[in-house]
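Review the following:
>
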Amino acid sequence: MPHYADTGRGVESNGQRLARLRVRRRWTQQRLATETGFSISAVRAYEQGRRSLDRSAIVLAFAKALDCHPTEITGAPYMPLISDTDGQAAVAAVAGVRRALLRHGRPTRPADHEVAALDLVDLRRRVGEANALRQAAALARSGAVLPQLLRDLQVACEVSEGDQRREMFGLLTSGYECAMQYLYKLGHISDATLATERVVWSACETEDPLRVLASRWYDAGEFLSIGEHDEAGAVIDSALTELGAVREASPEAVSLRGAFHLKAALNSVRAETAAVAEQHWEKAKVAAEELGEDRNDFELQFGPTNVAIWGVSLPVEMGRGRVAVERAGKVRLPSEFSPERHSHHLIDVGRAYFYNGQRQEALGAFIKAERLAPQATRMHAGVRETVGTMIRTQKKGKLVELGIRLGLV
């Protein structure tokens, strides 16, 4: 259930939700420790909020043991403050986006005026604008345009033929990707999963082999997010095999290869095989050097800068704050990188500082991320849990102010 922060009833931490789920199973803390391999002192620290339960690998370990979805521990989706008008608008639009996703594959039964109004050039422009909003992390504006855009694209796919039909499905794939990211950032994970399925289906209709492979990047992420590492690995390995069979690799193919190695690295981190993760990251570096530039093929940003960014996020996923902070000091993001990408990197940097014991620096990074992408930062499960832990153990000044905007105080 969403958490309504303005009620004054307080907000549960991940640890409190973990304790509630454990009690529901009628397990003792010792039983949970035994089932997961953590010490009983660690379980107590997580449940009491003295230790931040924000690392995905740990959340997944508890979720698997308790046979629950990870969001039952993280509490997503979250409800923004009543005073956060943009956040409220973003959440209010979820139902319309969901309805558009549910209509996928059904007869659109368009009115004559809808068919007459279809304009290929205009649809390209609108999809471009939707992607720009996605990169700007403008969630309220995304929610406002996506329902009608998806409806118009669905109609266009149904009434088009031949090459135009394939192009329409390419645009629809991109529209579904925008919906997927919008829903994911708002914490509506099940709806985001539905959007991902639509991405994969629509990509297949384009009959573009690289577009189909790009959709599998997101498909692998779905398995990864629920701890199905073998399935995620199988999707990634299959894609890398197909990309390796390309004789004369285009820049798009090289970019995809590198992106899949990064996804493989993340999957390995979540599966707690750090050495394998490092190998995939090194292979991604080779692909980035081969490209020699940052690209955005199929809206999957890849290149030297992106590899450097992942060089920070991967040790953060492992809780290795010192390594992540050292690498973060060497990252220089180009000004043309999107606010969404900047803010996500700053969130990783903030978590790295937290793991490294540099709490003031962590707070500064989170505040910078919030300025760039307010709703996306406030809805980020890792930010909420880390800031909540900091408040419980160090309540003062700007930290509490951020906690209020997150709805944690």
Observations:
- The chain has four domains: 1-75, 76-207, 227-319, 341-409.
